[in-house]
Design brief:
This protein is an alpha+beta fold and about 450 residues long. It folds into two domains: about 250 residues, Beta-lactamase (3-Layer(aba) Sandwich); about 100 residues, D-Ala-D-Ala carboxypeptidase, C-terminal domain (Peptidoglycan synthesis regulatory factor (PBP3), Domain 2). It contains eleven helices and 17 strands. The chain has a six-stranded antiparallel sheet, with no helix packed on it. Strands 3-2-10-9-8 form a five-stranded antiparallel sheet, sandwiched between helices. Helix 3 runs parallel beside helix 8, helix 5 crosses helix 6 and helix 6 crosses helix 7. The protein starts with a strand and ends with a helix. About 40% of the residues are buried.
Length: about 450
């Protein structure tokens, strides 16, 4: 295979780092005669002192530089990205998981009730029977009251697993999520939390750990904006989850009563003053340590995004921040053909015919998300030209990636077919080669 490469960087971010070593200067009044008679041992002694100091300086400055670069990369956002009033945030493409913009997106922080998204993901991944009837324990019902968000469950209430999941996600019922965790953990909340942490490892989340299923403040219960986006993206694969988190309100039932519940995510609540048409979910969270948090999603046409806002300036400010990030996504990014059908990627030299070529063109469009900060890479490779070829014969491939992630590929086909070279064409080709060889000697 002969390979050709085309790269189209939409945005390339880079930097130049320089280092200056220490200088050892002689005193200004030192004479040349003094330098001639100074024993060489002094030079060795000075070197023995300076070299360890120099190494130490390089190690310290290098370590500091590495930390500075790492911090800068973490906070990096494309030009024009919104400046949200939040401790950290992230905007990702829901289809591919591509990180698009944010601030401190990998910072470990308390995340409050957004933890319950992981509860839902584990339940759905395990294939939990949502029609199972669950008896609410006294421990779970103890979370009903004024301290924690709850739906007012009583001890020994009988509630379906589906209603418990709905109550955990829509109004953020802590009593409901504990009842569900007990049920799915075979009577042990700790057992279920272990499954949550196993799922975090499975997803490759490096900044996430859980100590309880509700996100109650605890030093061992934390996540990050990018990790939460990955959890939400995985949960949104399930239609049951998508249906629940988009509900403005719902009604759950026990054996003897009905409980009306209302969504705390005002982006999906009509006439809330913060409703956003394209919004499709997902979950709020609030605590003393985490502040006001929001994980939200939206879809319009062939674009869909997930936004995570952590420690927003206030209760309603999180909805403003979430909407701003979503509007930035819809406004600055778009799905577009990164390879167009009929676009030429190689000139194929015809056998035994100098200066005669035919083009290899893309057989179809390859579309993917493009926008600020995303680097598009197109790699084309093709076979040598066969003796003859018909129009449309596949002879290669062009592969497209966006920020290092595969975005699709297209076959490369012959634009205009050709016949096998005649005997005269072969003789002429060989004769021309022989002539050039003689002239070069």
């Amino acid at each position: 295979m002969a390979a050709r490469s085309c790269k189209i960087p939409l945005s390339v971010v880079g930097g130049v780092v320089g280092e200056n070593g220490p200088e050892d200067l002689s005193p200004a009044d030192q004479s040349r005669g003094e330098l001639r008679v100074r024993p060489r041992i002094d030079v060795v002694r000075n070197a023995a002192v300076l070299i360890p100091l120099l190494i130490l300086l390089i190690l310290v400055s290098g370590s500091s530089l590495d930390r500075a670069v790492a911090q800068e990369t973490t906070q990096q956002a494309p030009p024009g990205a919104p400046k949200l009033d939040a401790g950290s945030w992230a905007l990702v493409d829901a289809d591919t998981g591509l990180y698009l913009a944010g601030k401190d997106p990998d910072k470990r922080v308390a995340v409050a009730s957004t933890t319950k998204i992981m509860v839902a993901l584990v339940a759905l991944d395990e294939g939990a029977n949502l029609d199972d009837q669950v008896t609410v324990s006294e421990d779970a019902a103890a979370y009903a009251g004024s301290v924690y968000s709850n739906v007012g469950l009583y001890p020994y209430d009988s509630v379906s697993a589906r209603d418990l999941l709905t109550a955990a996600l829509v109004p953020s019922g802590t009593d409901a999520v504990y009842a569900l965790a007990e049920h799915l953990g075979d009577g042990s909340v700790d057992e279920f939390v272990g499954k949550m942490n196993d799922k975090a490892k499975e997803l490759g989340l490096k900044n996430t750990h859980f100590e309880n299923p509700a996100g109650i403040d605890n030093s061992g219960n934390y996540s990050s904006a990018t990790d939460l986006a990955k959890i939400a993206r995985a949960a949104m694969e399930y239609p049951e989850f998508r249906e629940i988190v988009a509900l403005p309100e719902a009604t759950i039932s026990t054996q003897n009563r009905e409980i009306d519940i209302f969504n705390t995510n005002l982006l999906v609540v009509p006439n809330s003053g913060y409703d956003y048409g394209p919004a499709t979910g997902i979950k709020t969270g609030t605590s003393a340590q985490a502040g006001n948090c929001l994980v939200t999603s939206a879809q319009s046409g062939d674009e869909s995004y997930i936004v995570v806002v952590l420690d927003a300036a206030g209760d309603t400010q999180r909805f403003d921040a979430g909407r701003s990030a979503l509007e930035y996504g819809f406004g600055e990014f778009e799905h577009k053909p990164l390879v167009k059908r009929g676009e030429a990627f190689a000139d194929l030299e015809l056998p035994y015919r100098r200066d005669e070529t035919t083009e290899l063109i893309a057989a179809k469009n390859v579309s993917a998300l493009a926008g600020p900060g995303l680097e598009v890479d197109r790699q084309a490779a093709h076979d040598e030209a066969p003796p003859s070829a018909k129009t449309g014969l596949e002879l290669g491939t062009v592969e497209v990636s966006v920020d290092g992630r595969d975005a699709g590929s297209s076959a490369l086909v012959v634009e205009e077919g050709y016949e096998e070279a005649s005997l005269w064409q072969r003789v002429t080709y060989w004769a021309g080669g022989l002539k050039r060889w003689i002239l070069q000697r």
